[in-house]
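Hi all, long-time lurker, first post. I run a small reading group and we've been trying to get comfortable going from sequence to structure in the token notation. Rather than ask abstract questions, I figured I'd post a concrete chain and ask someone more experienced to write out its structure so we can walk through it together at our next meeting. Sequence below, copied exactly:
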Amino acid sequence: GETNAQAGELRFRADSGQVDPAAFEGFDAVVHLAGENIAGRWTPERKRRIRASRVEGTAALCKILAGLERPPKVLVCASAIGIYGSREGELLDESSEPGRGFLADVCRDWEAAAAPARDRGIRAVFARFGMVLSPRGGALAAMLTPFRLGLGGPIGRSRQYWSWITIDDAVGAIHHAIMTDSLDGPINVVSPGAVTNRDFAKTLGGVLRRPALVPMPASVVRLAMGEAAEELVLADARVVPGRLEQSGYRFRHGSLGPALRHLLGRE
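-- Answer (accepted) --
Happy to help. Here is the structure in token form:
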């Protein structure tokens, strides 16, 4: 869309080179969330765009920030819990090693691309987002129609953990990261109430007052999504928000039932 110069908006496109670095002078904080949508099937071209939009985009932005006379004090850069891969039975905090897979590799390189900003002395926080819940988009929006029709249910073996966060707490965590000088490096932006896929389906069905008993076999998900199925839907990642909690962040929605009732207007 068009930018509004009067509102102080500026356009940044890492791939176009049409950027005036002077426009970045004097900001206190920069929040970088841009990246190709990872939902859907990953063709080789999609994977190239997913990687380039994150790694090259972050590198280009951080090169600009590092060259400023008055750089921002803090950069909050998006990352994802995909960095941990699928780790059945393991409780994952920010000290956990990266896992394996396409997303894990992308996230590792994505975070490393911020090196120029860190070398310049900018505090860089990597917000490792879990499944962000909003009725307006993402995974929850995609689930609403089948669940409302009574066609929702557990996926695959259904024991895999889904680490989620409401859109409200995702925004709250970003604000907290900007305002909290002690936060540096990775933070897990997930609620403390990760649940298994089976419990997620059961809770969503309960909030919508619909049965949630129609299972979706893993083979069907793989057929529809290919490689992405393993890393997005069937992956097991029980992630805890260690650094957010230690630094005093107060979650608005720490358990799934109240979170879904809030998001779906079923208070």
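A couple of things your group might point at:
The mean pLDDT is 94.
Residues 95 and 132 are 22 Å apart (CA to CA).
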